[in-house]
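S1.2 Input.
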Amino acid sequence: MPREALEALQLERLRAQLRRCDRRAPFYREKWQRAGVRPDDLRTLADLRHFPVVTKQELREEQQAHPPFGRYTVAPARVWREVHPSTGTTGHPVHTIWSARDVATITRFTARTMWSFGVRPGDIVQNAFAYGLWIAGLAVHYAAAEIGCLVIPIGAGLTNRQLDYLVSPGATVLLATPSYALHIAEALRERGTDPEKIALRRGCFGGEAGTEAPATRAKIEKGLGIDAYDYYGLSEIAPTFASECTAKAGLHWSEDDHLIEVLDPETQAPLPPGQLGVLVITHLTREACPMVRYWTGDYARLDLAPCACGRTHARSPGGIVGRADDMVIYRGAKFYPVQVEKVVRSFPELGDEFRIELTAHPETGADVCTVVAELASETVAPDAMRETLRRALREELLVAPEVRLVTFGTLERTTFKAKRIDDRRRPAAT
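S1.3 Output.
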């Protein structure tokens, strides 16, 4: 669809969404009244900048004040079909309702993402995303069935069983977090199975940044013998609504269902294409729990140029650069775990796992940042490797963290989202 026609469709859907939220959701009506805006003030897509953003903390407070689902659940209860909480660590997850129509819509655009990276009828899809309350597992399950695939609904975990099914019946598509994909590749290698001898040919990996980091993509592709693609979603918006296509030129956004903005993190002003900022997303077709200008906290860039694959929806080359919550500030420099990942995984002498430890100097109280990585084998000289890694980190991060190398297998492997930052500067909450 040409951008002019796409933006006309977005404007029509956005106006309808704002009006229904104003009529049926006191949360939005009161928020917009305080900001001095009304749905009728929206005449162009650019006018959306005058409407306030919505943060996860606001949603959490709204649901605590008006349990269980807050006052932004617009559709009547008779059409509700599923409830899914966020994966936050505060102890107060944000619950999102899907209506029957929402399930169908999510299935449709998730099937479209899977088609874009090459899934076809007859594929055997091994779903290693978590099922249950975490939503990615269900969304790709529904979508794979919609395309006409055989689904192996194994979920996250049971790594030995994952290996068994990769061999027989021989899954052709794997879906997982990038961390778990690397763990499966490691386990496959330890079992002595040649990845080129199994049927697996492609995989898409989300739930955390990393797939578009060249070193991580290369390790996944070599370790599993596949083409690896990036996936993106979040609980409040949708589980799997942006993915790479076979051109591997960035995340394609489903812009007929979601309005995508990139804002300046300080001023919240819209940024032009190509500039790095915070993703802010608005539901255009969500029925039950629409989000209007949801502040994701994820950093990305937008490219509006048509992709080599022919698709015209906006892309984010390089995927998600980092999360505001994960930014490390050390000696005046700012960086994200994905930058450390890029460096660590570029060295074959190192394993795939790493951690960023933040501690306080026992005497001065100054912050100390230490990157912990695993040596791939006992034949690697640790002292030389430590200095090599430190120099490479300094070049990438513009600051030189401390480096500690440990033996292979020391760091915990995960089947879910990897925890990369271990902040020990403050006592744990009780």
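S1.4 Remarks. The chain has ten helices and 20 strands.
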